[in-house]
Write a structure and sequence with these properties.
Layout (H helix, E strand, L loop, with lengths): L2 E11 L17 E16 L4 H4 L3 E6 L5 E9 L2 E7 L10 H6 L1 H4 L5 E16 L5 E14 L6 E11 L5 H13 L3 E2 L5 H5 L18 H24 L5 H18 L10 H32 L10 H24 L2 H15 L11 H22 L3 H65 L5 H28 L6
Antiparallel strand pairs: 1-5, 1-8, 1-9, 2-3, 2-6, 3-4, 4-5, 6-7, 7-8
Helix pairs in contact: 6-7, 6-10, 6-11, 6-12, 7-8, 7-12, 8-9, 8-10, 11-12, 12-13
Length: 495
């Protein structure tokens, strides 16, 4: 079974003849253990067009050292990455299925094969505190790397890695970096040995473009790219059943869909309709797992809030019996969807959209001129839904419109700063109230079903009836709060 660790490390280019400076004088460092020599060999796997490396991931099988095995490194942010590890097993042509699944969002069924072989002679020092606890690990690597696409091409270099220990902090990393810089050792331009070797086959860091522009198209594209990145980040978390991962993946799909709908005058709506339909499909598949998770948590918190004398019968066990099999089935359905050709086609469409959005002429105009009117249009849609909402269904439609307005303001927020954020916060308050109301609408029939099941099983359904009554009362209170909150929202004034 795979295990994962978070590692925070920085890489440096070490010029010929420049040695490591003395590090034991750093604050909190009592001693430096080492140097210890290790000989490491790793085979790196990727698609033929290097999809993993392009996304900042590395997958390797390493032998030698004290962490031999399969390593999949996933970017987390800044200098931190998550490393998923499996035992080395026998040398194989293909990586373990468990790790292959975690990169499907990038490979999409394309075969993984060796792309590089890297041998390293490593000298390691460990900086420890006065209790022998690891603060920072510093290694000097002599690297020999071979691109498997060209066996005659072999490169060698020397580099320094500084990794944060379990008792260290980033401030100490900064101090080590200052000492290295003073000695003439600068930060590496590559985040991994593999990307340094294959730099000529990878796009430059500036090739993505468009994120910092001031046109309406630039701003909308940056938001779409952000959601595309979020989808790719959350996909392996869903497969590993990590907490809140389904929710976050669903939110990213909804944000992208809302942006395409709200800003169809910037990104041609007739060119994105099929994609928004597919995003709706994905959100729906994920929604079943998420809705069950929300309901179970809602009921468990409600039961915990009752006096024990009102909890009659094995209520908590009944909740587990009801929700556990449904959640397992919904999770399996979600992962099956993520392994499907339909999902891979959706991802291809998302990549194509971000790479070359079908902008209308409005996309070339200033964001400050174009976006306020489009946000205002989304507000007017919400206002109509609220005016027509005279039952639960109407309030649910208003909730969906409030969510679209919130996401459209998010798109424009980088342009309008504090004004945009303040208005988004007010919209979120409205959306949260409507969401709370809808959660109660969904909860009540499930509570009726649980009460009926308890009776049929010869158990006491009183507590579920009590919770049903509390939900009905809470719904009336939410409706009253919404009636008081809605007039305070007002029109978006972003111009």
């Amino acid at each position: 079974m795979a295990r994962s660790v978070h590692e925070t490390e920085r890489k440096y280019e070490a010029p010929e003849g420049v040695g490591l400076p003395e590090l034991t004088g750093l604050p909190g460092v009592a001693a430096a253990a080492g140097p210890e020599e290790q000989r490491l060999e790793a085979v790196y796997y990727d698609t033929s067009d290097l999809r993993l490396a392009r996304a900042g991931l590395t997958l390797r099988r390493r032998t030698g050292g004290d962490d031999a095995g399969w390593h999949l490194k996933l970017p987390v942010g800044g200098d931190t990455r998550e490393e998923v590890r499996l035992p080395p097993g026998r040398a194989a042509k293909h990586p373990p299925r468990e790790l292959g699944s975690l990169v499907q969002v990038h490979t999409r069924g394309t075969e993984l094969a060796p792309v590089a072989r890297i041998r390293t002679t490593r000298h390691r020092w460990q900086l420890v505190d006065d209790r022998g606890r690891l603060l920072v690990e510093v290694v000097e690597d002599l690297v020999t790397a071979q691109d498997t696409a060209d066996d005659s091409r072999v490169e060698s270099w020397r580099e320094i890695e500084v990794e944060l220990g379990e008792r260290g902090d980033t401030g100490l990393l900064d101090r080590v970096e200052a000492l290295l810089a003073k000695a003439g050792i600068a930060r590496s331009r590559s985040s991994a040995k593999l990307t340094r070797l294959l730099a000529g086959r990878l796009p430059s860091a500036t090739s993505r473009g468009g994120a910092g522009g001031t046109t309406a198209g630039d701003v909308v594209r940056a938001y779409l790219r952000e959601q595309a990145d979020a989808i790719k980040h959350q996909d392996p978390r869903v497969r590993r059943r990590e907490e809140d991962a389904v929710h976050q993946l669903r939110v990213a799909t909804r944000r992208m869909r809302s942006a395409l709908q709200a800003f169809g005058a910037v990104v041609a709506r007739d060119r994105t309709r099929e994609l928004t339909d597919e995003l709706k499909w994905l959100a729906g598949v994920l929604g079943e797992a998420r809705d069950l998770e929300v309901l179970r948590d809602r009921f468990e918190r409600a039961v915990d809030g009752l006096d024990e004398e009102l909890v009659l019968g094995p209520v908590r066990a009944q909740l587990t019996r009801y929700f556990a099999p449904k959640e397992v089935a919904a999770q399996e359905a979600a992962v099956a969807a993520l392994d499907s050709p339909r999902y891979f086609a959706l991802l291809d469409a998302v990549d194509a959209l971000v790479e070359d959005p079908p902008f209308t002429p409005l996309g070339a105009k200033k964001a400050t001129k174009v976006l306020p009117d489009l946000v205002a249009r989304t507000y007017r849609r919400l206002a109509k839904r609220v005016a027509a909402a005279d039952d639960d269904t109407g309030l649910h439609e208003a909730r969906k419109s409030a969510k679209r307005l919130r996401y459209s303001v998010e798109v424009a927020e980088p342009v309008f700063g504090k004004r945009g954020k303040a208005y988004r916060d007010r919209v979120k308050e409205v959306q949260t109230l409507l969401g709370e109301h809808q959660d109660g609408v969904v909860a009540r029939p499930v509570l009726r079903e649980l009460g009926a099941r308890a009776q049929l099983d010869g158990e006491n359904g009183f507590t579920f009836g009590l919770l049903h009554g509390l939900e009905a009362g809470a719904a009336r209170q939410v409706e009253e709060r919404f009636a008081a909150t809605w007039p305070e929202l007002g029109r978006p004034r972003l111009k």
